[in-house]
Specification:
Order of helices and strands: HEHHEEHHHHHEE
Number of strands: 5
Number of helices: 8
Number of domains: 3
Strand content: 5-15%
Largest sheet: 3 strands, antiparallel
Shape: rod-shaped
Amino acid sequence: MTDLDRFKFNTKDTAAIMGVSVQAFSQWRIESLEKKGRAVFYDIREVIKNRINKASETGGTDAKLDLFEQQARLAKERADKAEMENDLARGETIEVAPAMLVLEKTILAIRQRILAIPKKGARSLVGLKTMPQAEGELDTLIRDALEELGTINPAALCEVSGNTAEVQATAKTNDKPVGRQKKKVKRRK
């Protein structure tokens, strides 16, 4: 047995020594030592030198570290997802879409109530003759509106079932008044 025979291995044994499959070893494209029929033999020293050179060119263990980093990142993402699901189940957090719908409906109710003040106030202010009387009436109307707004139940404004809400599109506005135009007031002579 010569010195070279001690380091000569076939493809299967060489792949096993290197800790890879035969298919992966074949992709390394290492020059063989000799071929006997279908058997291909490699000098294990040359294979190790080849892998060391490849590792030094590509940075060596970067691929393994990257794999570990990716696995750690994936584990963290899974833990974060489980934490968010638990927070949602405990009621510590809410989903954004239903909350936005409730907020939108609440703001709409507030807007409608505030815009109703002038209409109600116009009727009650007509007979008043002094400024303090008008201020008192307006103060009462505003306080009534604020008291009514304080009793709004946002959840009752929306049809919420479970964690989903029925979302309806709102009409687009063009910042123009709604309804027919007001007649111009003619001064009496």
